[in-house]
Amino acid sequence: MADRDLRDFLTKLEDAGQLKRITAEVDWNLELSHVAKINEERKGPALLFENVKGYDTPVFISALSSTERLALALDMPTNWGISQLAREWVNRTREQLPPKWVDTGPCKENIDTGDDVDLYKFPVPWFYGQDGGRYIGTFVSVITKDPDSDWINAGTYRMQLLDKKTTGIMIIKGKDADLHRQRYAELKEPMPIAAVIGYDPVLFLCSSTLFSPGQNEYNYVGALRNLPMEVVKGEYVDLPVPAHAEIILEGDLWPEKLRDEGPFGEYTGYYSGKGVVPRHYIDVKAVTYRHNPILHSTTVGRPITDTHMIQSMNRTATLWGQLETMGIRGIQSVYIPPASCGRFMVIVSVKQMYPGHSSHVGNAVISTSTGAYGVKVVIVVDDDIPADDMDRVFWALSTRYQPRRDSEIIKRGRSTPLDPSLPIEAREITSRIIMDATIPYEWKEKPEVIELSTDVVETMKKRWKEYGFEGELIY
Ligand SMILES: Cc1cc2nc3c(=O)[nH]c(=O)nc-3n(C[C@H](O)[C@H](O)[C@H](O)COP(=O)(O)O)c2cc1C
User: Fold this and answer.
1) Strands, DSSP E only, in 108-165?
2) What is the reported pLDDT for 1?
3) From the alpha carbon of 171, which atom of ligand 1 is closest?
């Protein structure tokens, strides 16, 4: 196979009964996003809106709002949970696989430049009533380059449609594209930028992952798929872009120029509180797209949407990998629940090997670059409790955790400007809590956990159907 694209993923979903085509006419103005949001809350399939009012271009949404679809995107077993998928992500990304240059590709089938650039050509959704406008960049990968080296970065940053040739973009301070922007500001030059909308969702999974500065997400896409991405040179910008992308916007971002952007119904389930804010924008100079392009989008808003599933999966993976790099032993599983917006809470299961081991784990989590950014609650549990089994985690919190003995409050840490639990003017710094819900390792006399007798369970497995139950007993 030369490369994989969004169309391959749609086929895969359809074969697995995970795609619903909606042929009824649906309005891009609120109706589309509301159908998608309620479908996601009901754990429905991915949706392809084929008849968007006033447009021929379909909109694909809710690609990864179930664990099964995350697994399908990553070619992993569909009965795995997020923690297992993340574990395999860590294994696969030990080696990187760089992209392959090709001369041309389907993304060049149509090229609009100059006066032909018209972003209203695409059925860009308006998501929530209080949003400041239509958002073209949600399931988007934004490509930029460091002017001093060959570091190419792909990051997901929201993009609002401002006029037919301009999109606003919110790149939070310190993000990789912001580091690039700062250098272009020093050089007093515009930053070349390309926004990829619609391609193999593994690129999106990587572009919304917090890899360290200097890392090229394209190499991780290759590693995760065991297939290099095929890239072509952009039409206006000298950047590598996926040859099989559906739609690519190319242009300049002037590092010091701003235009009003927002508000946008964020993944926390709230507006950020600042309303309309002057932010950077992209002066779009070229749009390239396939014949019959598909606009890929995501709802964002309150959990659980595919944004939360994605963040849960890729942050669990990066955190796990970083704990491993730190040499922390005994880690059984790691989980950042989607309901915690895929970022604010971490659960780690550990097989304790020495006194203070669980506390070592809790403190290590908030010292990793994933844990140090916005995580507010870390829960450490023993190895008999899988980190992603919330019933068992609550049981451990109820029966092993002593608030006075087992809580550590850290007063200052890096926050996200989107955390609504902090006052709008003071969102830079967050506090954190580490909750140690393990049985202290050093206790001579430990509470005795009630276990089922293995030999009886083995007998039950054989007699399962005889008892009148369906299927097999897996225990
Ligand atoms: C759907 C979605 C939308 C996002 N929107 C933004 C955004 O508008 N601005 C931002 O800075 N980060 C946003 N993020 C988080 C970044 O994608 C994430 O921090 C990523 O690591 C950024 O790439 P970088 O590490 O290369 O800077 C979003 C993530 C998702 C999944």
Assistant:
1) 110-113, 135-137, 140-145, 152-155, 159-163
2) 78
3) 11
